[in-house]
Design brief:
The protein is of the alpha/beta class and about 110 residues long. It has a single domain, classed as Alpha-Beta Complex (Maf protein), CATH 3.90.950. A three-stranded parallel sheet has the order 2-1-3. Strand 1, helix 1 and strand 2 form a beta-alpha-beta unit. The longest helix is centred in the middle third of the chain and has 22 residues.
């Protein structure tokens, strides 16, 4: 049986669990006969502790994944996929309550 290892750029249990849940859904599509393994590795995100914009969240996730690729190559790891996840805040401004949003219902 083929083994597919997915590296996650974090050791935090919620992030590892999220990847496991995704693998349970899409794994059979990737390879119905494969055995999947999810491993964590601590890597820097390159952004603040709590990113404060969508751009920072996306940059942090991308930088985690890119760091995993570099580390995997340096160590000779046989990771099939590298995943970067980043949590943060994204503030979306909404019109004040009662203002005209331009949205009509019909």
């Amino acid at each position: 049986m083929k083994k597919i290892t997915i590296a996650v750029g974090s050791l935090r249990r919620p992030k590892l669990n999220a990847v496991w849940e995704a693998v349970n859904v899409i794994g059979p599509t990737l390879d119905p006969n494969a055995q999947f393994e999810v491993v964590g590795a601590e890597v820097p995100s390159g952004v603040g502790h709590t990113p404060l914009s969508r751009g920072e969240v996306m940059a942090g996730a991308r930088q985690r994944a890119e760091a995993l690729v570099r580390i995997g190559r340096e160590r000779g790891e046989e990771w099939s996929y590298c995943v970067g996840l980043e949590g943060g805040l994204d503030v979306i401004a909404e019109p004040p309550s009662g203002s005209d949003t331009g949205i009509t219902s019909g």
